[in-house]
Q: What sequence folds into this?
């Protein structure tokens, strides 16, 4: 698929897509390769680790067109994608708390770029779990979450 056609398809689909049909997705495997088109013959543009949150744009056969937190658009195989939400810390530091609220004790702190699986939410807080199984709550304005 020529690059101009690829871009046109992604733009058209993203404009026509209704949020009602959008799936929340994230990288479930140890890492994912993001490509310039829907197939292994296309150039790898970047790689991302487990629990990278993504914005769903479209699906073509076994490939998802996605946008990452930086606004970059690419294709990724459904084999490495999980359904649900993940979160990435977008501030220099985020405190992970025992419960949803600043009055709850801090369990641990993480730095920008740290990734989690989102397992729940309450108000403006997300319940999160990291790759090691550590759990807690993070304030929504400290993370970018699957859309």
A:
């Amino acid at each position: 698929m020529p690059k101009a056609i690829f871009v046109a398809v992604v733009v058209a689909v993203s404009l026509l897509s209704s949020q009602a049909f959008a799936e929340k997705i994230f990288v479930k495997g140890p890492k994912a390769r993001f490509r310039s088109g829907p197939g292994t013959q296309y150039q790898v543009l970047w790689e991302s680790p487990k629990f990278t949150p993504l914005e769903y744009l479209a699906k073509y056969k076994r490939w998802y067109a996605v946008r990452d937190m930086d606004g970059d658009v690419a294709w990724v195989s459904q084999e490495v994608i999980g359904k649900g939400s993940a979160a990435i810390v977008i501030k220099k530091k985020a405190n992970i708390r025992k419960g949803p609220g600043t009055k709850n004790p801090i369990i641990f702190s993480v730095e920008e770029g740290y990734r989690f699986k989102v397992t729940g939410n309450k108000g403006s807080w997300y319940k999160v779990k990291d790759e090691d199984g550590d759990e807690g709550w993070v304030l929504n304005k400290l993370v970018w979450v699957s859309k």
Summary: The longest helix spans residues 3-16. Helices lie at 3-16. The chain has one helix and 14 strands. The chain has two domains: 3-84, 87-145.
